[in-house]
Every structure is written in structure tokens, then in C-alpha cells.
Amino acid sequence: MDAASSLSALIAVLPILAVMFFLVVLRWPATRAMPVAYAMTLSFALFFWKVPAVHALAASLRGVVIALTLLYIIFGAIVLLFTLKESGAAATIRRGFMDVSRDRRVQTVIVAWLFGSFIEGASGFGTPAAVAGPLLLALGFPALAAVMVCLIIQSTPVSFGAVGTPIMVGMRESLNVDTVEQAIAAAGMSYNEFIFQVGVFTAIPHAIVGTFIPLIICGMMTKIFGKNKSFAEGLEIWKFALFGGLAFTVPYATVALTLGPEFPSLVGALIGLAVVVWAARRKLFLPDGEPWDFPPRKEWDREWTGSFSGDVGEERHAMTLGRAWTPYVLVAILLVITRLPFLPLKAWLSGVQYSWNDILGTGLSQGVQPLYLPGSIFLLVSLATVWLHGMTGQETKRAWADSAKMLAGPAFALLFAVALVRVFIDSDNNASGLQSMPLELAEWVAAVAGGAWPFFAAMIGALGAFVAGSNTVSDLMFSLFQYGVADRIGAPHLVILGLQAVGGAAGNMITVHNVVAASATVGLVGKEGLLIRKTIQPMTYYVTFAGVLGLLFSYVIFPDAF
Predict the structure, then answer these.
(1) What sign does the CA torsion over 195, 196, 202, 206 have?
(2) Nearest-angstrom CA–CA distance, 500 and 495
(3) Residue 420 and residue 226: Cα distance in Å, rounded?
(4) What confidence category does residue 54 fall into, taking pLDDT thresholds of 50, 70 and 90?
(5) What does DSSP say about strands 354-356 and 366-368: parallel, antiparallel, or unpaired?
(6) Alpha carbon distance 331, 168 (integer Å)
(7) 108 SS3 class
């Protein structure tokens, strides 16, 4: 490895280190950290990568458009939450979950792990945190706990989120080149069969690693938010937590092995929800003793709470449990029927697109599909709820006004965070002769790792997701690179590509704009670094375990795979 390559890799990693340093070490809020990190990244792009200034500006503007779409989704989620609060539905939903189990660990497995995974399978876009986070807050969780658990579950289901988009778009588009297709044909496979197999080799490590995520979440929650600060109190529910993990991952892997990459998360979560709620009602696999709960609200640490207190108001006489749940049921149904490729709604809604083409004459473009975004579904259901729940005009006005007030802080941070991402990724247009920043960094790591690359492949996928905030974009950015590394070291391509997708999912736990967006839905702003310090632990578990499996799969279990 020559000095020039090492220097370019060092420069490429500095923006990532800067973000982590500002947020995690200095504990700056994202509203302060992201503008400074953006300025640093822009400087490296202009003066070391020699990216033309107009191209860097165009990449930044592209990021602004993406950030506005994220804010639209956040706003819709917050409006739905405040609408349910004003109608009295949130209080009824809270009571319904308490009737299933008053144990917060059980509620975490059901709402965050299973319901959140279902929403991820249907929609993607970080929607689980936007739906499950406010729901946990309404149940009485501290805002910090609600966001933390929702970020951690954005791992196992993510590779098959939005009806398989990371595989069906990210992988398929990145690898759609002649040399790869010729090699696949020489191995006796069609391209469609190859993509199917990538999904299989993604699902297997995910299912193994992901089964333990509910147990880890329960342990972290009791350790951080429990009165006794005890990880062991989370482990006391190990039978139920592992049961909840397997109830999702077994059907999830089965669907990937039989039906393909579109439905593992969607079907696995639905089956898991039905099975686990049934078991919880009958107290199966639950320990003896009192249900675990958070300490009284007056004893909560100040950093646990946000601008929204979590007060869900009083139940109303006519608000039945079925009526209260109707908006969430509508959200779930609409997300599914607008994402299934064989139904006409997907083509119609996604066909309504507004694009900014050739931004500032640079060739960069960015489109928006407003009707297809989950934000539109949230807002539509919020409006329908006004009628369904018989709300007054004053209640509706109050819900929308309170929602708008919560967006100022996250809006500022998101604009700079996503602009930084696009400058980082779009740095391939330069006069220095270098590849884009993420590819230069990945090439250096691959050269250093050599035959041990299967251990690091998932980490590169996580890096892509941390930077881009998307498993799909990570796959688009690194899949062809991962395929090339597998070629050079003689490792099975399918194993390495599966690890790329697994890492790309795990990285969603710590990506800055996911953290900012998820925090905004529960009114928790300025504590992004605190959240990353907590979620980086399960993320490290995820990619490390996946790396060990990668070595076993590559050299022991599946050495003859394509």
C-alpha cells in the first residue's frame, strides 16, 4: 500500500471521525456538529479531492432536497401522533398494551421489534422509528428509551425493507454490468437467480445474528433506564426475548429461501406478531415475579425526556380499542398495498415525480415522489382520523400546530447532515484522479485486510449506511466493489455480497440523519451523540458477529458457493 493511497484514505475517513468526535466525544448537539462537519467535508472535497466548486454546491443542493423529503416523513409521523393524542386514541392504545402485558420488556419486543419490523418491511425510509417511537412514548416510555430501541431494531429487517428495495434495487442496479453478468452466466445462473441467492446469503447471517437483538435490547433498556441499572434484569426475560427473536427470524429466513427478497421482513414480522402476542397474553416464557417497569417519572434523568412529555391525555368513553387502532391499521394497509409491485398503486403513486435534473449543469439530479413517500400516508390517515374519531376543528388545529413546532431543530441539523453525505458520496467528479471518498477508504481497507476480508465486509456495508443513511445507497455504493474484492481474494461472491447487505442494515442504527429523524418524532433534539454512544454497541455486536460468520461461510461452510 503506497503512501498516496494511505493519505487519501486518511483524508476520506476524517469527515466520519469528525462527526463521531463532535457528537459522541464532545457531545455537541447535531444542530452544532453537522454544520461544522459539513464545512470540513466540503474543504476536503474542494482542496484535496479537487472537486469543482459548482459540483460540490450541486451535491449539497441535492442533499437539501433529500433532507426535505425526510422532514416531510417526520412531520407526517408527528401529526399522526398528536392527532391520536387529541382524539383520545393514544390513551386507549396505551391501556390496550397494558392489558397484554404491563412488562416494559414485553412491550419492547412486541412494539419495537415485531411491529417496527413489519413497518420496515412495508415501507423502509426509517419509518419504524416514526411509527413505533411515538407509540412507545404514548405507552409511557422515556423518549430516549423509545428512540434507542427503535434505532436498534433497524437492523435485521432493513435489508428486506420497503418490499426488498435494498436487494432488488441496491444490489441489482449496482451489479448490473457486463463482466458480472458474464461470470454469472458462466456459473450456470440467470441474473434473477443470482439476485435471489444474494437474498438467501443475506437472510442467513441476519437470522442468526438478529435472533439475539430482542434480548440485547431488553438488557440495554434495564441497564440504562432501570431503577437498579441492571443488565441482568433484562436477561431475566431471556426465554421470551429469544422466543420473540425466533418468531420473526425463522419465518423471515424461510421466506427468503423460498419466495425471494421482497417479503422476508413483512411476512416474518406478521407471523411473529401473531405468535408473540398470543404467547404474551398467556404469559408463556415469562419469568415469575412483578412485571418490570421504569422508575416513577419524577425520578427520570433529565436527558431521558424531550420537548413532548409523553402525556397522552385521558381516554374517552366512546373510544374503543378497535377504533383507536384503526389509524395504525390504515397506515399498515396503505404502506403494504402501495409497495407491492404487482398492484397498480405503486406504479401510479411513484409515477408522480418532480425532478431537479442537471443541477447547476453538473449532471447531478434528484427526484421526489411526494405521493409515494410515507409522509403522505401519515397525513392522509391523520386527516381521516379527524372524521373517524369525531374530532373538533380546535383539536385538529392544535395537533398540526404542535407538530410544526417540533420540526425547527431537526430541520436545521438534517439539512447539513444530508448535504455532507452527498458531498462525500458525489466526490467522484474531481480533478485529482481519485475515486469517491467512500470508495478510496474501502479500497484501502480491502488492501490491508487481504484474505481476512470476509470479517470486514459487513463493516464496509455499515460504513456506507452510516454515511448515506440508507442500506439501499450503501449497496449501490459498495456492491460492485465487494464483488471485485471477492474475485481478488477467491472468496465466494454470494457470501461477501450478503455481508455487504447485512452491514448496510446494521449501520442504520447509528447513521446521523436516522438518529436525528427518529429523535424528532418524540421531541428529543440535541441528544444525538448520546444515542449514538448507546446504539454503537449493538451495531458493533452485529457487524462483528456477522464478520465471524463471514469467515466461517467463506472458508468452511460455503467455500464452493459462487
Answers:
(1) positive
(2) 9
(3) 37
(4) very high
(5) antiparallel
(6) 23
(7) helix
What are the pLDDT digits (tens) for 512-535? 888 988 898 888 888 999 999 999
DSSP 429-479: S-SS----HHHHHHHHHHHHHGGGHHHHHHHHHHHHHHHHS-HHHHHHHHH
Q: Under a CB-based contact definition with an 8 Å cutoff, are residues 372 and 51 in contact?
A: no
What grid cell was written down for 141? 416510555
The dihedrals phi and psi of 304, each to the nearest 5 degrees, come to: -80, -20
For the stretch 67-116, pLDDT in tens is 898 888 888 888 888 899 899 998 898 888 888 999 999 999 999 999 99
CB atoms within 10 A of CB 411: 18
Concatenate the DSSP letters of all residues of 475-501 into one string: HHHHHHHHHHHHHHHT--HHHHHHHHH
Secondary structure (3-state) at 319: coil
Grid cell, residue 136, equals 412507545
Burial (0-12, 13-18, 19+ Cβ within 10 Å), 363: exposed
* Percent share of the chain, pLDDT over 90: 67
Q: Does residue 521 contact residue 78 with C-beta atoms inside 8 Å?
A: yes
Mean pLDDT over each residue of the chain, to the nearest integer: 92
C-alpha cell at position 347: 406504479
Is residue 193 scored above 80 in pLDDT? yes
Give CA separation, 346 vs 253, 334, 371, 541, in Å. 26, 11, 10, 36
Q: How sure is the predictor about 128, in pLDDT bands with cuts at 50, 70 and 90?
A: confident
CA distance 138 to 117: 19
CA-derived radius of gyration, the chain: 23
Report H helices in 226-373.
231-235, 238-258, 264-281, 321-337, 344-351
CB atoms within 10 A of CB 40: 17
Helix, strand or coil, per DSSP, at residue 343? coil
